[in-house]
Amino acid sequence: MQAMLSDYHGSGYDRGHMTPSGDEPDTSSQNQSFLLSNIVPQTAALNRGAWEGVESAVRGWADQEGEVFVVTGPGYNPDEAQQTLGPGHIPIPAITWKAIYDPVGPGTGAYVCLNTAKPVCKITSVAMLTQLVHIDPFPALPEHLKAQIASMPPIRQSPYALSHRAGNEKLQKNWKSVAVQKALKALLHSLRGNR
């Protein structure tokens, strides 16, 4: 089985990155992140919304801690007939997930997102994720560490979702107005003066 761009064409599904290009250290690695071996079918609502929020939360966590280990993957529902995409019959995952191990914490946890038109993402333990997808992302870690949920950052709002929310055009226009900009400058000036 091999995915092709033609499998996604007109399918209504986005090409959802497992490793985001924004996490790659250089241009060559960023380009490689667009290979279809790093991509699964995701609904537009998940890929451009909550999933991007999960990626941002994990990126922020890594920036704060200096190092975290991340394992990402799709999950399929064995109790339902497998939905596929395109002529290559690419399996459509029921969920996508990110498991994180923070060696500084130390702690583990996972984000699990439904791959639906109205996606929901939840934070859970790595032990629960392992039961759900039958993959242990961190087999070398002790079970007690995988059973607990680390203090994980909340899922951030996706910049794409925020910019496409109904009514945001008017809000963004208002924030760019001269009067609002003057008020913001005055506020910043007064805050600096109070130091």
From TrEMBL:
SUPFAM superfamilies: His-Me finger endonucleases. Residues 1-144 form the ENPP1-3/EXOG-like endonuclease/phosphodiesterase domain. Pfam families: Endonuclease_NS (PF01223). InterPro entries: DNA/RNA_endonuclease_AS, DNA/RNA_non-sp_Endonuclease_sf, Endo_G_ENPP1-like_dom, ENPP1-3/EXOG-like_nuc-like, His-Me_finger_sf, Non-specific_endonuclease. Gene3D superfamilies: Extracellular Endonuclease, subunit A (3.40.570.10). This is Endonuclease. Residues 2-141 form the DNA/RNA non-specific endonuclease/pyrophosphatase/phosphodiesterase domain. Belongs to the DNA/RNA non-specific endonuclease family. Keywords: Endonuclease, Hydrolase, Magnesium, Metal-binding, Nuclease. Residues 1-31 are annotated as: Disordered. It is an enzyme of class 3 (hydrolase). SMART domains: Endonuclease_NS, NUC. Its EC number is 3.1.30.-. It comes from the Bacteria.
